[in-house]
Amino acid sequence: MWTRAELKASAxxxxxxNYWKAFWISLVLVLATGGxxxxxxxxxxxxxxxxxxxxxxxxxxxxxGALAILAIAYRLLLGYSLxxxxxxxxxxxxxxxxxxxxxxxxxxxxxxxxxxxxxxxRDIYELxxxxxxxxxxxxxxxxxxxxxxxxxxxxxxxxxxxxTLSRKMMDGNKFDSFVLDLSFLGWYLLGMLAFLxxxxxxxxxxxxxxxxxxxxxxxNALEFEFCDYEDLNLKRETNYFNDTNDFYNFNNNDDxxxxxxxx
Length: 263
Prior knowledge:
Layout: H1 4-15, H2 19-33, H3 44-56, H4 58-94, H5 102-106, H6 109-132, H7 134-143, H8 147-153, H9 159-170, H10 174-182, H11 185-192, H12 198-223
């Protein structure tokens, strides 16, 4: 069981002395995920107007189409791995572990291929659910929310297994996660008062809180045997809490805890 207050308090503790690096990583994460968009259906009259506009201004749609292709290529070739590398940074930060090498880890050989395959399948599922109807798309987006965090632990876990594990982790937690997101609304509104620039300074707090949420859900998944330690490339000592809920029950300077073959 988790509460918003506990997660946020843990996030604030993690950010002490680490805020500015987390800020720059959060900017990378925004750039990595900012190109995502949803699709929807159109009525008959709307399609007719779009068709008329295309016939009148074909050059504009050629440019727009080229930009869309470039955006998709960027998301596939760079965005997915940048996102997973950024999520890995925040997970490591939340555990007070070594945060070096997160991006090289995400772009390394087989890890890179596994990340692209899994994230692409996740996005396809989300798009199909969103095309069916907006609300199911939002629900499924929350179901698959932990996929990049799972890949941060093990990029080669397999697409189906990662998506299924995320769904199990979020079962019973989707609404609470939605409320957790809403709890940051005031901070974002405050940030918008600073010519919108202030919202970027809120992101490290949000992303670190979400990383702490993942660690709690990961602990639950291991306890309920949704997965095992080997599935997530973990040693048993590295789980979020020990039996006495001691948050930092390890040597923070021990690089052995930064596993997942980061050699």
